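Illustration: ABC transporter substrate-binding protein.
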Amino acid sequence: MRKFMALSVLLGALGAAQAATAADCTPKVSADHLVTPGKLQMSTNPTLPPQQFIDEKGELRGLNVELGKAIAKKLCLDMEFVRMDMPSMLPALKAKRFDGIDTGMFWTEERSKLMFMIPYAQQAVSIYTSPDSKLEIAKFEDLAGHTVGIETGTYQEKQAKLLNEKMVAAGMKPIEFRSFKTASETTAALKAGQVEAGINIDETARVLEEKGLAKIKVQGLNGTDITIDFIDRTLADAVVKALVELNADGTYDKLFDTFKMTRLKDRNFAIRGPGPAQ
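Result:
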């Protein structure tokens, strides 16, 4: 109860501050660098607690949600989230349906050429089963010959399939991957016995285990940085400055403590990679 109250107080304070934003200051990003003047519009897939999820009241919560609101406040913009599955996000961003992606996308060199990616946290990948599963898994290779559910269009899907290719080349049985649009669909398939194991980020697997929906067998695989992403360089530069300010005033630490996620190692907030041609 104490933890819930502390979370409510923090989120309430951030929400109250956010509500006052537009009326109290002048936007730090001009209209020609935004899809809609005065608003910061970001896509998110709210199926990955504690990153982003829908709470018992039907409201959008999570580290990325609250961090996005805090960034918007620093920029004197109104925050708006666009709910969307992961595979559709990059095409929609390039079509300028919204300003950025705030869903914890893993940094890769290939992606850094398509958008301006700003690392802000770290994540790794877990393998989990249903709580009563007798399947013994001590390493990724133990999934050989088994059926595994995974969220489509994600970093973890790409890394898992690359590892599978290496396993097959070494003479091991292939993994049978079944891809789903969301982590919730993967969990439902696990519960229904349609897959023997699931793969997702460490924090989401931990929440599933806490809810009694999964048992983590391996965690900490392929750890790397996750990012917030933009198509406009000026807006991305402004967000970098906002993150630096949030780190300096303690908001960054408070949010990461609240949602128990892993901070960026060096806290060197900056665009990483070349970004798209402007």
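Reading the tokens back as a structure: The chain has a mean pLDDT of 90.
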